[in-house]
C-alpha cells in the first residue's frame, strides 16, 4: 500500500508504533519496522543521551528498515538535556522523530539541519496547524478515544479526522482507538494517510510488559477505560482498576476542589519500584526510600536514611523480604559484570555501579515476584 505516509517515511504499511514510556525499546521498535511499519524507540525511557545512543545501535542491529525515536517535551523544574538527546538521534543515523507534549518549535532547527523528518502528536486541529506552520513534516491526530492524554477538547476521531483533512496540507495519521485493519480503512476513509497505534502494540509478544497486562488488554471491552484528573486539566484515559475507582471516588467527593495531592498516594505503586528517580519524578520533587541493608546477612534490620514522600508514615516501598531478594539479585548482577565494567587492577581504589531496572509483580492475592527488566553500567560511576 502506498500513501503519503509510506512515501514520506520509506515504509511498506502506513502504520506507526507510537512512543510509549518503558515500552518503546529496541525489541518492539525493530519488530514493527521488520513487519513493514514504523517502529519507535521512546527516547526519554533511556536515562541519558548515551543510553539512547546504545539503544539506537541495538535497534539498528535488529532491523535494516527505517525506525524512529519519540521525544516528549514536558514542563518540568529540571528539563532533560533535549539537545543532547537530539544529537544522539542524529549521530545514530535516525531519520524520523515523533514529538509529543509541548511544541517542538525551538528544537526544529537542530532536527531539520540533520535532515530528520518530524511527526508531531496533536489532539486538536489548531495544534496540528501550528505544527505544520513550524515545519513538521507530518502530524499524528489523536482523537478523544486515545489512551493516555486525550487533550481537553473531547473531540472524537469521527469529527476530528475530517476536520484535519479539510485544514492540513501535510500528511497525517489517525491515533486513538486504532487496533486493526478496520481501523486503518476507517481512518483513511475519513481523510488520514495512515494510523498510529499504541495500546494495541502492548498486546504483542515483543512488548516488554507482563502477560497478565497483555491478557487484560485483549479481554477488555469498550467499558474498561475511565477518565481521571479532568478537573486538574490533565485528563488521562486509563484502564479501570481498584486504584482508578478510588481516584474517581475522591474526585466526586471533592466536587471539583481536588488537587494532585489528594490522589498522589494512589499513583505511588506505579513509581515505587524505582530507586533512582527519573526526570519526571524529579520535576514533581518525588523522593525515594534510601536504605542501608546488609543483604548477605538475612534477618538484619533495614537502616532507613530517608523515606519516599509518596508513601505514608510508617510505610516502606519494599518489604524486608523483598529487599533481601533484591539484594541477592543485585549481588549476582554486580559480580557478573565486574570483569567487564569493574575497576581495573591499576586503580584498586575505584568502584563501579550498575543501573538496574526492576519491579515486583504478580497475580492479585499472590506474593509479588521480582522481575529484573534490564541492567547496565550507571553513567559516570566508577569507570
Quick structural summary:
The protein is 36% helix and 18% strand. By secondary structure, the protein is an alpha/beta fold. The protein is globular.
Describe the protein.
The chain has three domains: 4-216, TIM Barrel (Alpha-Beta Barrel); 220-266, no CATH class; 290-377, no CATH class. It is built from 14 helices and 14 strands. With 383 residues, the protein is an alpha/beta fold. Mean pLDDT is 83; it is low at 268-284. Strands 1-8-7-6-5-4-3-2 form an eight-stranded parallel beta sheet. Strands 9-10 form a two-stranded antiparallel ribbon. The chain starts with a helix and ends in a 6-residue tail after the last strand.
Helical content stands at 25-40%
- State Rg: 22 Å
The helix/strand series, from N terminus to C terminus, equals HEHEHEHEHEHEHEHEHHEEHHHEEHEE
Q: pLDDT average, as an integer?
A: 83
Q: How many H/I helical runs?
A: 14
CATH architect. name of the largest domain: Alpha-Beta Barrel
User: Into how many domains do the coordinates divide?
Assistant: 3
Give the overall form: globular
Adjacency order of strands in the biggest sheet: 1-8-7-6-5-4-3-2
Strand content: 15-25%
Number of DSSP strands?
14
CATH top-level class of the largest domain: Alpha Beta
Distance between the termini: 49 Å
Q: Main beta sheet: strand number and arrangement?
A: 8 strands, parallel
* Protein structure class: alpha/beta
**CATH homologous superfamily identity of the largest domain:** Aldolase class I
Spans with pLDDT under 50 lasting ≥5 residues?
268-284
